[in-house]
Amino acid sequence: MKRTALLSAVATGAFCGPFALIVDTLSDGLGALEILAAGAISGFLGSLFAHFILWKKS
């Protein structure tokens, strides 16, 4: 496995973990579509976060 792919996955997970906690806190009032959208946003932002973290290191 490439080191960059592993670092990207770890950085994405580090972003998405706290994001999931926030969504969990707010999910009592959210429907399935909103939770699905929050998951998509989390993945998108986590991927961008990982990209920028790894870009700065290179």
What does this 3D model show about the protein?
It contains 2 helices and no strands. It is an all-alpha fold and 58 residues long. Helix 1 (3-26) runs antiparallel to helix 2 (32-57). The longest helix is centred in the C-terminal third of the chain and has 26 residues, at 32-57. The chain is elongated and about 40 Å long. The chain crosses the membrane at residues 32-55. Keywords: Membrane, Transmembrane, Transmembrane helix.
Layout of SSEs?
Layout: H1 3-26, H2 32-57
| Termini separation | 18 Å
Rg (C-alpha, Å):
13 Å
List the total number of helices: 2
How would a textbook summarize the main sheet? none
Mean model confidence by pLDDT:
81
> Which blocks of ≥5 consecutive residues have pLDDT under 50?
none
Shape: elongated
The number of strands is 0
Class derived from helix and strand content: mainly alpha
Fraction of residues in H or I helices = over 70%
